[in-house]
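hey so i finally got around to running both of the ones u sent me last week. sorry it took forever, my laptop kept dying halfway thru and i had to restart like 3 times lol. anyway pasting them below in the order u listed, first the sequence line then the structure token line for each. didnt double check formatting much so if smth looks off just lmk and ill redo it

first one:
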Amino acid sequence: MRVVILFGSELGTSESVADCLADELASHEVSVYDMTDFDPGDLDAADFHIVVCSTYGDGDLPTGAEPFFDTLDTTRPDLTGLRFAVFGLGDSVYGDTFNRGGEIAAEKLTECGAVQVGEHARHDASSEIKPKDLARRWAATLPLHSYAVV
């Protein structure tokens, strides 16, 4: 099964986590893309997608993810059958907007018919847990074995 990892980052942490997830999932065919370089028209229901997205400012998508989701909003592709998981990054000091970037990403994909699977990971920059450590543990929980390509 092909795994497509899309990251949206402001300072590079999401990219680092995406690369870590790719290493953890190396038993699959894995591709990693910056959302600025990925056309939502290329989303394929035959692939399993992982969205790694930070939160920027006051609960916004990072600048690098905005064009991807703006295009998704404009084109409204039918993503029925597409399965995805989300690894969000944020800081709990921001209260209500903690990890909002990943939540927005999930909302926008599900609005187009995609289905979120697995636990929505939410890394907290205020915790002592390093993002890559959480990513490694989270990758092991992904239900990739449940989705065989036929």
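and the second one:
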Amino acid sequence: MTAEPEEPVEHVERHGREEPSGADPGDRRTPRYEEERGGAGTPDNFQRLWTPHRMAYIKGTGSGEGCPFCEIPKMTDEEGLVVSRGETVFTVLNLYPYNSGHLMVVPYRHVADYGDLDEPEYMELARFTRLALAALRKASGAQGFNVGMNLGLVAGAGIAAHLHQHVVPRWGGDTNFMPVVGHTNVLPQLLRDTRRMIADCWPGED
């Protein structure tokens, strides 16, 4: 009686990683090596958090069709996370914040460059930036801020086709081991609650 042919053994490269203590070198079942089976690029020391829902933001370029900054003003304040609306600009929470309370001041008009703003737009953008600073100080006791724009893809703009100014509150010790070592941001409050808190502290008209 002839023996049945053996099933081919799937080859798994270890790429220099050490086996756990007591592990069977022939064991190919552990999911620990899933990224080494040829589907995740070159293995490294980083874990990945896959966020395909962000593609809607990344693809927000062109004439304005599908641009989230063009769609947000059509929503209610709660749905769009809008903090305040002006004549030519609005202020909205960043859906992917660098820090809790991260705001963006955005013109309604779909323009890409600061030089494309007309006078009423850049004047109100500056005024809303000042109001955002005051609201964040009152709402959260922010001790400092990062304020600025990333103009163009090469400058790091996530939505390069629609200009937006970032207003990021900062506190002493807010850069800790979680983002530095764990590559993870810890946000202590739900976005809808943050929106309400800042909106309640938004200064009235001058």
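quick thing i noticed on the 2nd:
The longest strand covers residues 165-170.
anyway thats it, ttyl
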